[in-house]
Specification:
The protein is α+β, with helices and mostly antiparallel strands. It is built from twelve helices and eleven strands. Strands 1-10-9-8-5-2 form a six-stranded antiparallel beta sheet. Strand 6 and strand 7 form a beta hairpin. Helix 4 packs parallel to helix 6. The protein is globular. The termini are far apart.
């Protein structure tokens, strides 16, 4: 039976790839979007996730292990947890890992994408330490140098008073590292078990080796998704399909009148440099849900709704390259429940409950806005 399920899953994937090659036919997810959100065009990053075979992510050359270790920590920091160790050794791909469900992916790019989510979560860590991988062959996560976290976070966090025309922010935009399979149709995603307890069965179904780096990353994502809602969060959920992303955001915001906001960034990333603010547009809405993609063979979004949040669309121009981008910026006005050791406080010179902490949304991450009423000033 397991073999039949595995074969059926792969067959569905092949049919999806063939079907997606025709842009004339809408996917089920696109039909759902047009029905649920008729006044909102699909953001470009989501379109590319729905059609991963037509969009290639620009990959950098592999970096050395120390660089991978530094980038790996960003996701942990977004959640405000103490960062575990990054992988310290390279893992060669098995035959299964180079299959459709696990296309080759640059280690540095994957590590950056994996770590960004932790940085933007920014809330108090749970009482129990992160669960350790069950296999001794998986990457070790103990005893890493946390100084790398601060270096990388300096390209993400900033003060709200810098969100003004003429001000300068130093930012870093990582290379996009979307999941190889992109956003699966809901019927396919829902057929794949998504829990830590069912991970061995999921690995077998997707043809991923149990002792691989990909398996360790999947275990980490499942651990984060199963963390209980933390103090300061009005809602928290993980979504494995576009339909689940939209419906989860509607439920978290308590209305069907929502709209998406994303950053207009190059998928190839941009080096850290000063950017001058050319225009600022406050995002008007009653409340917000932020969603960050995480490392998995297919796209998994981790979403949360925190109170006392302000959002802006900020037009920027690079000082050295002249690159023009528009980023969605999130400012958390109430950080009283955040981990006192969160790296943003060291960078900005603040503390829990102090001045607002702001960060931008990287490529592919999205913000959902409650359009029911104008957001009241806080």
């Amino acid at each position: 039976m397991a073999r039949l399920l595995h074969s059926a899953t792969i067959s569905i994937f092949v049919l999806l790839v063939v079907g997606r090659c025709s842009n004339a036919v809408l996917t089920e997810a696109e039909v759902f979007w047009r029905t649920a959100l008729p006044d909102s065009p699909l953001p470009d990053p989501i379109v590319k996730l729905l059609h991963p075979e037509t969009s290639s992510v620009v990959n950098k050359q592999p970096k050395d292990d120390d660089t991978v270790a530094e980038a790996y920590s960003l996701t942990w920091l977004m959640w405000g947890l103490r960062s575990p160790s990054a992988p310290t050794t390279k893992h060669s791909n098995t035959a299964a890992e180079t299959s459709l469900v696990n296309k080759p992916k640059d280690d540095y790019t994957a590590a950056e994408a994996f770590s960004l989510t932790w940085l933007m979560w920014g809330l108090r860590s749970p009482s129990a330490p992160p669960k350790q991988p069950s296999s001794p062959s998986r990457p070790s996560r103990a005893g890493r140098d946390h100084s790398a976290d601060e270096y990388l976070a300096k390209g993400l966090f900033f003060h709200e008073d810098l969100v003004q025309v003429g001000k300068t922010l130093t930012l870093y935009f990582p290379v996009a590292a979307s999941a190889p399979l992109g956003l699966l149709p809901r019927r396919v995603a829902d057929a794949i078990p998504f829990s830590a307890s069912s991970l061995p069965a999921t690995l077998a179904r997707l043809g991923i080796a149990n002792d691989s780096a990909q398996a360790a990353a999947m275990e980490e994502t499942l651990y984060m998704c199963e963390l209980p809602q933390k103090a300061g969060e009005a809602a928290k959920f993980c979504a494995t399909s576009l339909e689940a992303l939209v419906e989860g955001s509607m439920a978290a915001l308590g209305t069907r009148r929502i709209r998406p906001v994303t950053s207009g960034l190059p998928r190839s990333g941009a080096p850290k440099q000063p950017y001058t603010v050319r225009a600022v547009h406050p995002v008007d809405g009653a409340s917000f849900v932020s969603c960050h993609d995480h490392d998995y063979p297919y796209t998994v979004y981790m979403c949360h709704n925190t109170p006392s949040t302000r959002a802006y669309m900020v037009e920027l121009e690079g000082a050295r390259s002249g690159l023009a981008v528009t980023v969605a910026a999130i400012c958390h006005a109430d950080t009283s429940s955040w981990n006192a050791e969160h790296v943003s406080f060291r960078i900005l010179g603040t503390k829990p409950g102090g001045a607002p902490v702001c960060h931008y949304l990287p490529y592919g991450h999205n913000l959902w806005v409650n359009m029911e009423a104008n957001r009241s000033s806080s």
